[in-house]
Design a protein that fits this description.
This protein has 7 helices and 8 strands. By secondary structure, it is an alpha/beta fold. The chain has an 8-stranded mixed beta sheet, with helices on both faces. Helix 1 packs across helix 7 and helix 4 packs parallel to helix 6.
């Protein structure tokens, strides 16, 4: 029987995902480091362990059914359950991505990882999460996916790639639907925005550090049992849908 709180963070081998894993690990949690690249995954696990985190690698390609199923089995075997799932893995896709020049193949690739990947992983992990006393699902989104902010006069969202932007709007909609369906369970489901964080996703152009970007995920992963579900949050509070 497991004694520690167990979390799985997807895309945890670098950037925000790694810092989410490190932050949750610092709480004494056992962390599954989900990532496709074996070398980067192993390096991340070694670094986390050196810092005192009880971490283990989880080979995980969110775009592959068999990989996700195997990851769920591994977590059940290695950890005995799951308390928190952080859906962090995401891609930007080939650029430029203006709507009028957008390649449909790019849209498919982005949605496959950023949206369908979340559905695939979440549904595979739900049986484990249902066994937790305080289960949480955190979907890492972005304020660029907010339809309210996109359409508010005077707010410039910048030259955001269209497929990426739309995938985050899609993800936010899914967050709401998951929260509604699971409202009669203990599972809290929320979207989090890390802010404009310097990672390889944006060519390290962001103004926030990965550690700062990870803060909202750590907050949502540690919500009390009477915390919100079906919300969209950043460090300042609620983000409009």
């Amino acid at each position: 029987m497991k004694e520690q709180t167990i979390a799985l963070v997807t895309g945890a081998n670098k950037g925000i995902g790694y810092e989410i894993a490190a932050g949750l690990g610092a709480l004494g949690w056992r962390i599954g480091v989900g990532a496709r690249d074996r070398e980067r995954r192993d390096t991340a696990v070694e670094k986390l362990r050196a810092a005192g985190t009880d971490a283990f690698g989880v080979p995980l390609d969110v775009a592959d059914d068999a990989s996700v199923a195997a990851a769920a089995e591994l977590i059940a075997d290695r950890a005995g359950g799951l308390d928190v799932l952080v859906n962090n893995a995401a891609i930007t896709g080939a650029v430029p991505q203006t709507p009028t020049t957008l390649d449909p193949a790019t849209v498919r690739a982005v949605v496959e990882t950023n949206v369908i990947g979340v559905v695939r992983v979440t549904n595979a992990m739900l049986p484990l999460l249902r066994g937790s006393a305080s289960p949480r699902i955190v979907n890492m989104s972005s304020s660029v996916g907010s339809l309210v902010l996109q359409t508010t006069p005077g707010i410039d969202m910048g030259p955001v790639p269209a497929a990426y932007l739309a995938s985050k709007t899609f993800l936010n909609a899914l967050t709401v639907q998951y929260a509604k369906e699971l409202s009669d369970t203990r599972i809290l489901v929320n979207s989090g925005c890390p802010g404009y964080t310097a990672t390889d996703l944006n060519g390290f152009q962001g103004v926030r550090t990965p550690q700062q970007g990870a803060a909202i995920a750590i907050h949502l992963a540690t919500l009390p049992d009477d915390g919100p579900s079906g919300g969209f949050f950043d460090d300042a509070g609620t983000v409009p849908w």
